[in-house]
Amino acid sequence: MKWLNKILGKQNHQKPRTTDTVAFHDLGDWVSERTRAELGGFFESAAQIFAEIEETKEELIRDIKSLKVADPPELPSRVLRVGFAARDSMIKQINVMIDRISTPAMDYPDIMEFCRSADTALDATIEKSAKSHHRAKYLFPQEVGAVFTDLRSIKISLAKLIDLLDREGAKIKGFDEITETIQRIDDIKRDIVAGNSKIQKNSSKIDEIKREISDCTAKLEQLSQSKEWSSFVELEDRLNEREMEANNIESNVTELFIPLNKALNRMKKQSESGRYTLSKKQKGLLDVCLENPISADVADVNDFLIEMLQIVKSGALGLKDKKRDKIVDQIDQIMDSFAPKKERHDTLMSETHEIEHQISDLTISKTKTALEGQLAEKTKDIAQIDEELGNLREELKMRSIELEDLKIELSDAVNLIEPVQIVFD
Distance of CA 88 to CAs 63, 128, 273, 346, Å? Predict the structure, then answer.
C-alpha cells in the first residue's frame, strides 16, 4: 500500500491543466489565427479552383473570338443566315455570363454568393443557347465545340468549389458567426456606454433645472413679502369670487334650457326639412340656446321663446301633452328668470375684466406670471426628461441582458474550437 500511496501522492502534486485565457479585446486576433490555422487549406484550395476558373474563362474568351471570325463552309445563303444569327445570339449570351463570373474576396459569404450566382448564370446560359448551339454548330462544329468544352470546364470547377464548401462550410460558418458575435458585443457595449453617458448628462440637466426651480420659488416667496402683495392678493380673491359666481350663473342658465333640448332639436330638424321656416337670426338663437344660452341677448331670447311657445302649443312638434305642458312651463320660467341672471352675469364679467386690468397694471402681477410660467415650463421639462430617462434605463437593461446572453453564446462557440476562458473587460 505504501507504493500506491507514493504514486497517488505524486499524482496529487502534479499541477492541474489550466485553461488558456484570452482578453475580449484580443479575441478578434485569436479568431483570425485559429481561422488561418483551421481553414488555411480551404482557402488555398478555393484559390486554386478560382485560378482554374479564371484560366478557363480566358480560354473561353479566346475561343469566342475564334468563333466570331470563323469562316463557314459552302452552304445555301438561307442556312448561312440562320447559322450566323445563332452564332451571334450564343456569343451575346455567353458574354453576359462571363461578365458575371468574377473572382470574389476570399471569405465565406462572398464565395457562397459567387457559387450561387455563377452556377445559376451558367445553367441559364446553357439553357437559353441550346437552340443557337445546335444551329451554330452546324456551321462551326470545331469552334462551337471548343466554347462548350470551356463552359463544361467552368461547370466542373464550380462543382469542385461547391463540394469544398459543403465539406468545410459548417466550420467556416462557425468562425464567421463568432466574428459577428464579437462585433455585436462591441456594438452593444458602445450603445451602453453612450446610454450611460446620456443618463449622466440628463441627470445633471435635471439637477440644474431643479436649482432654477428653487430660484423661481425663492423669488415668488420674496414677492409675497413685498408691499404690493396684499393688494395683489385682494384683487385675485375678488377676481376668483366673481369668476366663480359667473360660472355658477352660467351653469344655472344652462340647466334652465336643458329641458327644452328635445323641442329645440325638433324645431331645428323641421326647419332644415322645410316644414316651417325660421329666420337666419332665429336659427342662430336656436343654436345659442342649445350650446351657450348665457351669451344671448335678453330681448332676443324673449322673442325667440315667444315664437317657440307658439310652435309648441300648436302641436307642430308632435310632443305629448304632458311633455308639451312641461316645456310651456319651462319657457315661462326662463322668461321670468333669464333677464336678472343675464344682467348679473354681465355685471360680473364687466367687473372681472376691470379687476384683471387692475391686476395686470401691478408690477408684481407681471413678475408673478412670468415666474409661474417659468416654473410650469421647468416642471414640464423635468417630467419629459424623467420619462426619457425611464425609457433609456429600460432599454439599457434589455441591452445588458442581451449582452450577457451574447457573452455566453460567444464563450460556447469559442470553446467548441478550443477550451478558452474569455476575460470580458
Answer: 14, 13, 81, 98
Q: Which residue has the higher pLDDT, 159 or 169?
A: 159
pLDDT (mean) for 358-377: 83
Q: What is the largest CA-CA distance in the chain?
A: 130
Q: Which residues pair with 22 in a beta bridge?
A: 422
Within 8 A by CB and 6+ apart from 8, the residues are: none
Domain end point (choices 307, 327, 361): 361
How does strand 20-23 pair with strand 420-423?
parallel
Whole-prediction pTM value?
0.50
Residues 6+ apart with CB under 8 A from 58: none
> 363-417 and 24-69 helices cross at what angle (nearest 10)?
70
pLDDT in tens, 198-212: 999 999 999 999 999
Amino acid in the structure at residue 315: G
Q: Return the residue matching grid coordinates 326662463.
A: 334
Q: What is the DSSP string of 207-232?
A: HHHHHHHHHHHHHHHHHTTSTTHHHH
Residue 4 sits at φ, ψ, to 5 deg, of -70, -45
User: Which contiguous run of DSSP H or E holds residue 147?
Assistant: helix 141-223
3-state secondary structure of 110: helix
Instruction: Indicate if 272 and 165 belong to the same structural domain.
Output: no
Query: Among 287, 288, 267, which Cα is nearest to 278's?
Result: 267
Grid coordinates representing 37 are 490555422
Is residue 188 a part of any domain in this protein?
no
- Dump pLDDT digits (tens) for 263-288: 888 888 888 877 777 888 888 988 99
Q: Which tens digit of pLDDT belongs to each residue from 143-165?
A: 888 988 999 999 999 998 888 88
State the total domains in the chain.
Answer: 2
* Same domain for 157 and 49: yes
User: Is the domain of 38 the same as that of 164?
Assistant: yes
- The Cα 53–Cα 47 span in angstroms is 10
Q: For residues 132 and 87, is the Cβ–Cβ distance under 8 A?
A: yes
Residue 254 lies in a domain: yes
What pLDDT shows up at residue 107?
Answer: 73
Q: Map grid coordinates 452593444 to a residue.
A: 188
